[in-house]
Amino acid sequence: MRSSSRSRSRVEIRAGDWEINLPMSTVRQVLRSYVPAQLRPHLGALRRMIVAHPLRVAAQKRRLIRNPTLRPGQSELLHVVNDQIHFRDGMYTGDGANYFLAGLSALDCVEEALRQVGPKSIRRVLDLPSGYGRELRFLAQRFPDAAFTACDIHPGAVDFCARAFGAIAAYSQPEMSRMSFATDFDLIWCGSLITHLDRAAIAELLALFARHLSTSGVLIFTTNGDFVTRRMLDEGATYELQEADIPVITSSYSQTGYGYRDYPRGLGYFDFHPEKSRYGVSLTSPDWIRKLGAARVDCARYPSKSTAGATIKTCSAL
Question: CATH topology for 29-225+285-317?
């Protein structure tokens, strides 16, 4: 989940006693003023390619491996995990430690959920949305004998996961009620998608998962809830919403267990949606999710868990 903290990135330029310290947003605005529009995408791609260069990423991973705060087993996992990062991966902003720690955190969520449900035979795994494999690379190490399906609305991200991690490619679409897969899954991981969908889309997504969850399968997904609401109200976090949307979404959540607002236009989030809407920030309580429900899926059996600011929900097949 992205928050307003992204605006705190700064650029420092020093020459002797002379120093300039500017917010990254200001630097981008200055560059847009002087760089011809037709060159900006190419320069942006070049910058991302430099930032995500394999040698740079590998060095960042090595530094993280030496971090004494890692738990037992995490260093060993980092040693073997695939560290290829696509230069268009929006989850990688140049900080390899944060990127790989986010993948480890997702794996922690899955491990915690599987501890709740007990031993399972995991042969087929769906990662939706897979993005460029920030979490999938860790899941593939955890379940080396499983067949993975990477599904995302960005075809380039899916193709990368197929090449880099050997995943089966599946391409998502805005109307999830029209989607289907060729198989059922023993484990479905959905990290930070329900956090962006409105009520109708959440219902469509849960119904899709229900149709493709094996009889002993486990569905694990993350939601925004009390933690994000507190950050909005107490810390001024906007999560890229307009400030006027914050009282609306938090009030709705406190009254009903559900709140949603679209992202503002101009951020690029609606390029893939024909309606140019229905993608933003949602707040959903565990009770609201349970009441929404879906046929063949039991979301009431296991308690919700909170970790790293997200609420982890575990559901099983009925």
Answer: Rossmann fold (3.40.50)
Domain locations in the chain? 29-225+285-317
Task: Output the pTM of the full model.
Answer: 0.85
Cα 150 from Cα 139, distance rounded (Å): 11
Alpha carbons 97 and 256: distance in angstroms, whole number: 37
Q: 3-class DSSP state for residue 129?
A: coil
Please report how many Cα atoms fall inside a 13 Å half-sphere around the Cα of residue 129, on the Cβ side. Answer: 21
Give the Cα-Cα-Cα angle 151, 152, 154 (nearest 5 degrees). Answer: 140
In tens, the pLDDT along 83-141 reads: 999 999 999 999 999 999 999 999 999 998 999 888 789 999 999 999 999 999 999 99
119's torsion region: left (phi>0), alpha (psi -120 to 50) or beta? beta
Please name the amino acid found at residue 75: S
